[in-house]
C-alpha cells in the first residue's frame, strides 16, 4: 500500500470508497458534498494495486488543519489504512506550521455503532473533545469537535 496526495484523476476512486460506506456517508454526502469538497480541499489517498482504498480530505479553518472527510473501504478496515492517512495528514500539517489537527463527528449522545467506531478511532490516536454542540437535526442531536496537537514545538 502507498499513499500520495490526491489529484483530479482520483476523484472517481474516492467517490467509490464513499459509495461503499453508506453507514457513514448519506446520499447527499456521496453525490453532492464530497464531490464538491474534493475540488476545494487537499488530501491523500491510499492505493493498493492501483485502486483507491482510502482517502482523507483536509482544509485549514480557525488555525487548525481540519479533516473534512475520511473513509476506508470496508474490506481494508483494521489494516492501518486510516492510521496511515492520518499520519500523512499530521506530517502535512506540521510542514505547513499548523499546531493542531481537528474534525467533528457525532457525539456519544447518539447511539449509532458506526460513529461509535469513528470516535474510538480518533480517541485511540490521541484526539480529545474540545467542544460539544446540541443540534436540531433529529438524526444527529449531538456533535463533538475533537482535536490533537501535532506541533513539534511548544506554544
SS elements, strand count: 7
Q: How does the major sheet shape up?
A: 7 strands, mixed
Shape designation: globular
Our estimate of the beta-strand percent is 35-45%
What brief labels describe this structure?
globular, 7 strands, single chain, 155 residues, 4 helices, alpha+beta, Aminopeptidase
Concise structural overview:
With 155 residues, the protein is α+β, with helices and mostly antiparallel strands.
Structural summary, described in words:
The chain is α+β, with helices and mostly antiparallel strands. It has one domain: Aminopeptidase. About 30% of the residues lie in helices and about 35% in strands. Strand 3 and strand 4 (about 65-70) form a beta hairpin. Helix 1 (about 10-20) packs antiparallel against helix 2 (about 25-40).
Task: Break the fold down into its secondary structure elements and pairings.
Layout lengths: L1 E4 L5 H9 L7 H14 L1 E7 L2 E11 L2 E9 L8 H15 L4 E7 L6 H12 L3 E10 L2 E10 L6
Parallel strand pairs: 4-5
Antiparallel strand pairs: 1-2, 2-3, 3-4, 5-7, 6-7
Helix pairs in contact: 1-2
